[in-house]
Amino acid sequence: MTPTAMTDPLNPDLTPIQQFYTKCNIFVTGGTGFLGKVLLNKILSSCPGIENIYLLVRNKRGKDVHSRVEEIFEDPIFKSMKEVCPKYRYLVQGVAGDCLQPGLGLSDQDRETLINKVNIVFHMAATVRFDEKLKISMQINVKAAKDVLTLCHEMRNLKSVIHVSTAYTQCPFPEVEEKVYEPPIDSKKMLALQDCLSEKFLDNITPMLLDKWPNTYTFTKAIAEDVIRNNSNGLPLGVVRPGIVISTYREPVKGWIDNFYGPTGVIAGAGTGVLRTLRCNPERVANMVPVDMCVNGILTAAWEVNEVFARDINPEIPIYNYCSPKENELTWGDFTNKTTKYGVMYPTVKAIWYLCYNNNPSYIMHLLSMMFLHYLPAVFIDAISMIMGKKPRMLRTYKKIHKFMHVIEYFSMRQWDFHTNNIFKLWSGMDPRDRKIFFFDMRQLNWDSFLENYFRGIRQYLLQDPIETVPQALKRWNRLYWVHQAVKVFVFLFLVKMIWPVVSLIFT
């Protein structure tokens, strides 16, 4: 159902969504992560009148909670926010905790503070490592979700709870509706297994438990949705399932990214000349979404969840698939062609070879490409390194790259029909002013502009190569191009020399 966009006469300058967040205390898990930073920035920039944001932060590498919160705001994405909200540090409070610990590792005092004050909860904490051990993945992705809901049930002034899941919880099936599905294994049974079995034993039976699910991430996120359903018990709760979340589209800066996950690693690898092949079907849809638009959808969903539960008695849990719509899809082939174009426009001085990347849907061609374009050059470079007395690194690097390629292959070779009715009903029910502030309509996304800034962002924020070095990089790029062509000629002549005696023998 669509909430009615109404304006409070006492705050006529605020939009309905801004009014919803006014005088609210917000609890965020996963606030130190990629999605969490953008969420934090958006709330502080666009929701004036909030009282406090409580961030669940664990002590890490000898740094206390206060130091880690300070570190968050050193990121360049917070520059414009600091101008709009100069007193931001008075609004953000770190809460010591850890999703790996029972009860989120909260102290009694912090727990009491959250129970008494929090109005809105965003549970985004998760381990996104696809090859994470099942015991750890269960604790962070499943048990912590249950602990968050237990805490929410005690909160005295709760207005809305959003659990951030993933569009790929049901990845073994080609069609994914906006509803809670039956889990691969009952969540209560899986939690019992996690508690009573050793990590080693769980590792041994993980392939059997995963069954059709490709990794522990998608498996445990599917289990977590069962936990949400079983433990909601009337909570004003909704679930947002994003697709593959990549860089920012518009705000706070274009193209910001802070990790090499998924397609980002492919672009970085191809742009530096390290990655030259990926097993990928270029005709399949690449279900990518910008992180800032995803965050806007999450913030808007929290508003609607509150409206729905205030109006209806025992409504179903609202599920929002935030994915690429049919009206504006991008295939993996288009993605490759566009990013390759921008790779040539904005080459990096960090490149070790000319960009010569290909999608190979054929398993045989992919293996041959890895053999001749990855392993052979790696052996050659490592041999030279050893002769020069240096440590060989290329083969070890390619082992890591191939492990990453194997993970992404599952998603680049398949396609899903994600239903997006709820997310677009949400958009249609927004006040026009909110649509400008909390823009998330994927149908209006300009892929060319987005991917250009995405590539530039990878170059700037991940490769630490500022845009000012482009002229220098173009000169280097030109040299690498001719070296690349010379190597191809050399290989061709070498193959001719090797094959010619055999050919001559056959025809004589």
Q: Which parts are unreliable, with pLDDT below 50 for 5 consecutive residues or more?
A: 1-9
- SS-derived structural category: alpha/beta
Overall spatial form: globular
What is the tally of helical segments?
Answer: 18
Main beta sheet: 7 strands, parallel
Distance between the termini: 81 Å
- What is the percentage of strand-forming residues? 5-15%
Give a description of the structure:
By secondary structure, this protein is α/β, with parallel strands linked by helices. The chain is built from 18 helices and 13 strands. The protein has a 7-stranded parallel beta sheet, sandwiched between helices. A two-stranded parallel sheet has the order 6-13. Helix 2 (34-46) crosses helix 11 (291-311) and helix 12 (332-345) crosses helix 17 (447-462). The longest helix has 38 residues, at 470-507. It is globular, with a radius of gyration of 25 Å. Mean pLDDT is 90; it is low at 1-9.
Gist of the model:
With 508 residues, the chain is of the alpha/beta class. 51% of the residues lie in helices and 10% in strands.
